[in-house]
Amino acid sequence: MYEQQRHAAPRRPRRVPAGLLSLVLLVALVLAAAVPLEARAGATQVGKASWYGPGLHGKKTASGERFNPQRLTAAHRRLPLGTQARVTNLKNGKAVTVIINDRGPHRGGRIIDLSRAAAQQLSMDGVARVRVEVLN
């Protein structure tokens, strides 16, 4: 006899609520901004560096650890705390690897504040022109 054919009505695509799309977009943007371009391994920055520390020994840094001017540490405005960076004095080519453990510098025109030990390894007297390269 006649075979019954089932004709299904064409399914309409499901609509995603606009609010959900907005939320997904917002999360994607936040995640993309969470690691700034300058914080990616290999990123470099050139500018002025200074050293800090007199009178700050033992005070807490932004990372929560105590500041020790004899450790190879530095302060940077935006690099994530714990980031390793190679700082090179562009005048003499000397380089040192530091760990970012504080926020700063708080003086305009400078890109990084080094501990006294790091500045000594770079043979810095005061302010020096440096290249900062993110290692991790």
Strand content: 25-35%
Helix percentage: 10-25%
Overall 3D form: elongated
The count of helical stretches stands at 2
Main beta-sheet annotation: 6 strands, mixed, barrel
Mean pLDDT: 86
Q: Report the C-alpha radius of gyration, rounded.
A: 26 Å
Classification by helices and strands? alpha/beta
Order of helices and strands: HEEEEEHE
Number of strands: 6
Low-confidence stretches: none
Strand order of the largest sheet: 1-5-2-4-3-6
Distance between the termini: 74 Å
Question: Care to describe what's here?
Answer:
The chain has 136 residues and is α/β, with parallel strands linked by helices. Helices cover 17% and strands 27% of the residues. The protein is built from 2 helices and 6 strands. It has helices at residues 18-34, 116-121; strands spanning 44-51, 73-75, 84-89, 95-102, 110-114, 128-134. The protein has a 6-stranded mixed barrel with strand order 1-5-2-4-3-6. A hairpin with a 5-residue loop joins strand 3 (84-89) and strand 4. The longest helix is centred in the first third of the chain and has 17 residues, at 18-34. It is elongated, with a radius of gyration of 26 Å.
Based on the model shown, name its key terms:
136 residues; alpha/beta; 2 helices; 6 strands; 27% strand
What is the fold's blueprint, element by element?
Blueprint: H1 18-34, E1 44-51, E2 73-75, E3 84-89, E4 95-102, E5 110-114, H2 116-121, E6 128-134
Parallel strand pairs: 1-5, 2-4
Antiparallel strand pairs: 1-6, 2-5, 3-4, 3-6
